[in-house]
Structures are given as C-alpha cells and as structure tokens.
From TrEMBL:
This is Histone deacetylase domain-containing protein. Its cofactor is Zn(2+). Pfam families: Hist_deacetyl. Keywords: Chromatin regulator, Repressor. One of its GO terms (biological process) is epigenetic regulation of gene expression. It comes from the Eukaryota. Gene3D superfamilies: Histone deacetylase domain (3.40.800.20). Residues 92-397 form the Histone deacetylase domain. PANTHER family: HISTONE DEACETYLASE 14, CHLOROPLASTIC, HISTONE DEACETYLASE HDAC1-RELATED. The keyword Repressor applies. One of its GO terms (cellular component) is cytoplasm.
Length: 435
C-alpha cells in the first residue's frame, strides 16, 4: 500500500532562469579578480596545509572501537557503509540494492581491508547524526515532521513524502537518513584527524543512501531526504574550524538542495556539472549565488551527449582554477554515477574511465590546495553494473593504481560528443566567473 503525504512546507526549486544578457561577476567580486593559477602549482606542496583555526574533535579515547590515529594515517582510503536496507521500494531506481552492489564489487575486485590490509580502512563504528546536525541545513519543522511521519509509514508500509514527487519513505527512513548523514560526518572527522599528522591523509568515501543533494532546506526532493554533503560541510566548519569548503557535484542532475542551502554563504563554494535540461530544471548558468554568496555558486549545464572529453575539459578549465582561486580548507564531492552512458535516467555518456579520472584528479587537487582533505559522498547511479564498476575504479584511482575501466567500458556504446555546444557552455561559464 502507498499513500501520498507532504512532510512540512516544501520549497519551490529556484529556476535561476537564463537572463537576457550575460552577467559577469568579475567586478563585483573584485577580491577574486586577477588570479591565473595553473594546475600543478606549488600551492601547498611539501608542507602541511592547515587553516588557521583548525581543531579536531576526533578522539580514540571516547570509543575504543574507533580507528587509531596510526591506522588513519596509514590508510589511503577510509570508507563507511550505510545501505539503508529498510528504505526500499520495489522497481524504484533508488532502491536498497545499490550500496550492496558496490560492496560486492569492491570485494570481487579485492578493494577491501580483507585484501588490502592497512591501505583501505572501513569506518564501521560511527555515531548517527543528531537532530541539531540535520537542523544545521534543514528546517526543524521538516525534520520533526518526517520523524512523526514514520508512524504513518509503519502502518501503511510505504508513503510518499514529496507530494506528487518521487521521494518515498518507509518506517526506517528517518533513522536510515540519520545514519547516512552521521557516516559522512564521521569520515570528515577521520580525514581531518589524519591530516594533522600526515601530508597525505586518506580520502574518505561515504557509501550511503538515501542520497542527499536534491533535498532542500524545507523538505525532501528527488529521491533525497537529508542533504548529506551539506550537513558534512556545516559539521566541518563547526567542529573543526574548516571555514572554507568547496563542494564539487558531478551527478548528472543539478544538486539544487546543496545549491539552495549555501546560495548566500561566501565560505562554501558549490560547483555543479550536470546535464542541461534534466531534472529538476534548476542549475542555470546565471545562478551564481545571492547576497554575500554571489560568486560562490558555479553551475555548468552540459549538453546531452557530453562525455569524457567534455568532462576532462570542464575539469581543467573550470573546476581546477575555481578550486585554486577559492583556496578551500576541505573538498567535499557529491559523487553521482548516473552520468554513465549505461545509466537509464539521463543522457550523458561518461564511462567508468571518466569516473576514474575524476577521482584521481580531485584527489591530486585536494592534496595541492587543502592538505589532501577530501571526502566523496555517493549520490546517484542507477544501473547497478556501471555504478559498482565505476565506484570500484574510483577506489583504484584513490589508491594510485591503474584503471581497469577498459575491462568494463564498451566503446560501441559511445557516439560523437557535441563539442561545439560544450565549448560554448564552458566559455560562457569562464566569462561569467572570470576564469
């Protein structure tokens, strides 16, 4: 049985419609003007890059089951798993099979602690997020409303919590969502703790669901319940003094929830690449933030059919100079794997190799600008084969190993990318943001 239920007041996504004239933010944000850094500069190389106020709440004394500082510093990857098995709807793309498929692939490819020893560390013991943690991003009316709705879900078996939208809930959804957010926060704690002791801390990877980047401050949206990456960003600021956070979102859909959460915040930069015209219709290039946050939002809608060449170009010409110029203390990644050519919900043609390159390059960029502090958060990805193979190859990239994408990717699926449209989109974004 299923029934519709609206939880709390839901906001209407910002369309950020395209303005009649191209608007540049260069002059308004004069403190950004004049940088011309190249990827591979000496920023942060050979020294421990720490923000002035960094502190660390991580303590192995509080929980003897937590990893030691030595274990953290020895690891190359630290990951957490929150599969939310009770949060499930049959035949729904965002189903409970997603995270187990990834874990199975990691085991099959010998990318787990069992096979890699100290190189890979699973963070198996972590606290769930609190109501206050969630309320750092979401309105309490929504949080308490969702908690109360669990009684209805328990009686009915399944409810819809987005009005006419696609986001569902079961009796375990509220608790599963707290666990997912807590898993991401714990990875931030661990990566920060390691970064105080090594120039090359492990990269975090949160294998969690429900996903989060569509969840707006007032409610759920687009399969997403709580904004996991946004909550982690606020946690990094409040618990660790990491003032400036850069969020890279390469999901095929625009992360409108994260966008809206930080649209007026000058200390959190949100950058999204996504398919132009795809759900939820937000993420226009003209949306660059508001008020004090103007200039710290960059949206790059890519034309349908964009693939590896388009993303590599966007990374080198958009993402790298933005990150270098912003000089963050931490990089968080909304890692959506639904831009894969085999994914059923959109029309880009990324490959497993594309995701390998993204993970490799983001890790290298984080080491350059913020002492290696970087955590990935699973977002979309609905073809279980392409999702699991791409996450596995991302792990190889983070370990510094060769890609095995050629064993999965089939060039026969690919077609010519619309590079003229891609070039025009990238050039427009560079003009607006003075890159």
């Amino acid at each position: 049985m299923s029934m519709a239920l609206t939880v709390g007041p839901l906001s209407v996504p910002r369309s950020g419609g395209i303005s009649g004239t191209r608007r540049s933010i260069c002059k308004k944000n004069h403190h950004w003007f004049g940088f011309n850094l190249r990827y591979g500069s000496v920023l942060g190389r050979g020294r421990l890059v720490q923000p002035n106020n960094i502190c660390c709440s991580f303590s192995t004394d509080k929980d003897p089951l937590s990893p030691s500082i030595q274990q953290l510093t020895d690891a190359r990857i630290i990951y957490s798993v929150s599969p939310a098995l009770g949060h499930n709807k049959e035949s729904h793309p965002e189903c409970s099979a997603r995270v187990p498929a990834i874990v199975t692939a990691l085991e099959k490819n010998e990318l787990t602690p069992k096979f890699r020893g100290s190189q890979i560390l699973e963070l198996a013991n972590f606290k769930t997020a609190t109501i206050e943690d969630i309320a750092s991003v979401h309105e309490k009316a929504y949080v308490f409303g969702l908690e109360k709705a669990m009684e209805e879900a328990s009686d009915s078996g399944l409810i819809f919590i987005e009005g006419s939208g696609p986001t569902y809930a079961t009796s375990t959804t509220f608790q599963d969502s707290l666990i997912a957010a807590g898993a991401g926060m714990a990875l931030v704690d661990s990566v920060v703790a390691a970064s105080r002791n090594t120039l090359d801390p492990p990269t975090g990877f949160a294998l969690i669901r429900p996903p989060g980047h569509h969840a707006v401050p007032k409610g759920p949206m687009g399969f997403c319940v709580f904004g996991n990456v946004a909550i982690a960003a606020r946690h990094a600021q409040r618990a660790h003094g990491l003032k400036r956070v850069f969020i890279i979102d390469f999901d095929v859909h625009h992360g409108n929830g994260t966008n809206d959460a930080f649209t007026e915040d000058p200390d959190i930069f949100f950058l999204s690449t996504h398919q132009d015209g795809s759900y939820p219709g937000t993420g226009k290039m003209s949306d660059t933030g508001k008020g004090k946050g103007e200039g710290t939002t960059l949206n790059l809608p890519l034309p349908g059919g964009s693939g590896d060449v388009a993303m590599r170009t966007a990374f080198e010409e958009i993402i790298v100079p933005c990150v270098q110029r912003f000089k963050p203390d931490l990089i968080l990644v909304s890692a959506g794997y639904d831009a894969h050519v085999l994914d059923p919900l959109a029309n880009l043609q990324f490959t497993t190799g594309t995701y390998y390159s993204l993970a490799k390059d983001i890790k290298r960029l984080a080491k350059e600008v913020c002492g290696g502090r970087c955590v990935f958060f699973l977002e979309g990805g609905y073809n279980l084969d392409s999702l699991s193979s791409s996450v596995a190859d991302s792990f190889r990239a983070l370990l510094g190993e060769e890609s095995l994408a050629s064993e999965f990717d089939n060039p026969a699926y690919l077609y010519d990318e619309p590079m003229r449209k891609v070039r025009a989109a990238i050039d427009t974004a560079k003009s607006i943001h003075c890159l």
